[in-house]
Amino acid sequence: MSETNKFQSLGAVSYPNENAFTRITGFKHLTMQERSGASIIFEYPESSGDPYYPIPRTDNDELYQKYRRLADNEPRVSFVGRLAEYRYYNMDKVIARGLHVAKLLLS
């Protein structure tokens, strides 16, 4: 590890071939933290479990719109993130969106 305690040189590095994992994400790159140590995750492909990305289909969009309308009437409900907003975001956009919504909620 370097003196900046970053595990890798980029926020997310993909490993498509010879490893059991497909990606390593180092969160200090994404959040610009100045703390010691590193927070990383290894992503492993699986054919079962919860889906991580929305599947763009008409029935899914209609369901999202239904929940969106219900949430709009609830002052303490916010949708933030890929599945919550029914969009694909790169991780830097997910974090930026979360920080933006947090600022709005706290102001």
TrEMBL record:
It comes from Leptospirillum ferrodiazotrophum. This is UDP-galactopyranose mutase-like protein. Residues 3-88 form the UDP-galactopyranose mutase C-terminal domain. InterPro entries: UDP-GalPyranose_mutase_C. It comes from the Bacteria. GO terms for molecular function: flavin adenine dinucleotide binding; UDP-galactopyranose mutase activity. Gene3D superfamilies: NAD(P)-binding Rossmann-like Domain. GO terms for cellular component: cytosol. The lineage of its organism: Bacteria, Pseudomonadati, Nitrospirota, Nitrospiria, Nitrospirales. Pfam families: GLF.
